[in-house]
Write a structure and sequence with these properties.
Layout lengths: L1 H22 L3 H25 L3 H22 L7 H18 L1
Helix pairs in contact: 1-2, 1-3, 3-4
Amino acid sequence: MWWILQIIGCAVVTSVQMVNRQYGLGLTSWLVYSLTACTVTYLSFARSYEIAPSFTLAWMFGQTALNTFGLIGGLLIFKDALTVQQWIGVVMSIVGGYLMIK
């Protein structure tokens, strides 16, 4: 259950950052960020850290999810160029997250 909360929180953070990138840092971006941060991310991360076996495990899983969602969002929405370093970083994050959970 804790890892589902981490995925939800990371997906919301990634979505908010994509809105910031798309529309800039105006009023729309501020409203989206503040409303989602207060309602979704704070609650999901706090509850996730509370019920996870350890803080480090939840934090590393969250970092893995953020890396992966950020890479996917950049590729699909913004058509970013992908470097070898990004692939290596995402693969290392996924493998590390898997090994910590296992």
